[in-house]
Write a structure and sequence with these properties.
Length: 370
């Protein structure tokens, strides 16, 4: 089935590390954007599967919009597509942008999963990151979400932060576990060009120290009943992000909104990123697509392998053959055998995967398949 991604490019404040397509906005701009977004969704021409089993609101901060506005956008999806009975409907959420009343409205409106960006339990680290919430706000947000009826809640953590050490990061991991959520994502800080962090002198942990933080985190999460199912993502059994799995499994998804990407029917394309230009295009009855690429079979095979290797279960040899009518070893034999020989890839039970001890340096392995 099809996945749907909805981009909300608005934030209350821009974080110091963020290079996502987002900015601080006024109510007039937000309303004009929602109008255009709903029009894009309702009028999209798509020759393919129209039953949807995941909808994901990302950003930016979707909860910068009111619950009524978010539900209006979800209603536009319902008008154009058929939502599967068990459809996973996620909204990203920052603490301090929505309270229990708003969360109750989202739950009643059809949202059933939240991804809450807490990033750290250390208030000084949060200030350095430019976050607008405190650790107390994060706990209150998760508790409010649970009271509102959400039983599928994910939280995000970051490591490798300025001034951070193993002890401070593990306190954040312990804090996240104390919230008793069903999913935890752990991302390494990356300094992106053009962000405030890229212009600062930062006291960053070494790569080795960041790797140690990741390993300690993974070990603690394993012992607490979480399973790593992708490089940065850990879940209790049955609570993996079904939407994000579509990306790693190369399943079809459509993106709506400024800067949103789609990949479906062998094509990858993206919308214009500038919000004002996006609104103008849609309101003029034109497409917002600014870049479109037809993927070759070689492209699709390569992406299937290097994205699939991000997952703990790796890739299925049978699924590769089903999709591409080719044996994976006929296509990538040299790269596979090289890595199998040195132990950086394991082949067992018809699957190919990267062992846990090499997962943090998996980019150096996956590059062989690009």
């Amino acid at each position: 089935m099809l996945g749907i991604y909805i981009h909300i490019p608005f934030c209350r404040a821009k974080c110091n590390y963020c290079d996502f397509n987002s900015h601080v906005s006024c109510e007039e701009e937000r309303q004009a954007y929602i109008d255009a977004l709903c029009r894009e969704i309702r009028t999209v021409k798509f020759d393919g599967e129209d039953t949807v089993d995941t909808v994901y609101f990302g950003g930016g901060t979707p909860t910068c919009l009111t619950p009524r506005q978010l539900i209006r956008i979800l209603d536009a999806v319902r008008d154009r597509f058929t939502l599967d009975k068990a459809c996973e409907v996620t909204s990203e959420c920052n603490p301090a942008t929505i309270g229990e009343e708003g969360l109750c409205a989202l739950r009643a409106g059809g949202f059933n999963r939240l991804s809450i960006g807490i990033q750290s339990a250390n208030d000084e680290e949060l200030k350095i990151l430019g976050r607008i919430h405190s650790s107390a706000d994060a706990r209150e947000c998760v508790n409010s979400a649970r009271s509102a009826g959400f039983d599928n809640i994910s939280v995000d953590l970051m490591f490798g932060l300025p001034g951070q050490n193993e002890e401070s990061f593990m306190k954040s991991v312990e804090f996240a576990l104390s919230l008793e959520t069903t999913h935890i994502s752990c991302y390494a800080l990356k300094i992106e060009e053009g962000t405030p962090f890229s212009r600062m002198e930062l006291d960053l942990p070494s790569d080795d120290d960041s790797c140690d933080m990741y390993d300690l985190c993974a070990d603690m999460l394993y012992k607490s009943g979480f399973k790593r199912y992708e490089i940065s993502n850990f879940a209790r059994p049955g609570f993996e992000s079904r939407h994000n799995l579509k990306y790693w499994k190369c399943d079809d998804f459509l993106g709506f909104g400024a800067g949103a990407y789609s990949c479906a029917n062998g094509k990858r394309y993206s919308n214009i990123a500038d919000t004002a230009q996006y609104i103008e295009k849609i309101n003029s009855g034109l497409t917002a697509i600014c870049d479109c690429e037809t993927l070759s079979k070689a492209d699709m095979m390569s992406e299937f392998v290097f994205l699939g290797l991000r997952m703990a279960d790796g890739i299925s040899e049978n699924e590769f053959e089903r999709r591409f009518s080719a044996d994976i070893f006929d296509v990538f034999g040299d790269a596979l055998l090289k890595n199998i020989k040195r132990g950086t890839i394991i082949r067992e039970n018809g699957r190919i995967r990267i062992p846990d001890k090499y997962i943090y340096v998996s980019n150096s392995i996956m590059v062989d398949f690009v």
